[in-house]
């Protein structure tokens, strides 16, 4: 009985993983027939392309090359670092 449940569970897991593998297509997006173009933003002269809309700004993906801690230093003595109960 347990082997039957184990086989059914593993079969369902394999089917679910196979179905999930097909979800992440990496093809460029195409407009279908009858699809409206991207509306023009307020203050813009023309509508943005799909590539321009997908590009990240520095605020969305900031530069991570700043390291605040450049060297190891011992901590100064802390007068409030007391053992429990004191």
From TrEMBL:
PROSITE patterns: PROKAR_LIPOPROTEIN (PS51257). Residues 57-86 are annotated as: Disordered. Keywords: Lipoprotein, Signal. Residues 1-21 form the signal peptide. It comes from the Bacteria. Residues 61-78 have a biased composition (Basic and acidic residues). The keyword Signal applies. This is Putative small lipoprotein YifL. It comes from Sphingobium subterraneum.
């Amino acid at each position: 009985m347990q082997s039957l449940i184990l086989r059914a569970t593993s079969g369902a897991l394999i089917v679910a993983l196979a179905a999930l593998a097909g979800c992440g297509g990496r093809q460029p997006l195409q407009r279908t027939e009858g699809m409206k173009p991207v509306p023009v933003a307020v203050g813009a002269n023309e509508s943005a392309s799909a590539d321009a809309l997908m590009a990240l700004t520095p605020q969305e993906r900031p530069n991570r090359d700043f390291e605040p801690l450049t060297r190891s230093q011992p901590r100064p003595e802390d007068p409030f670092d007391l053992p429990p109960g004191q």
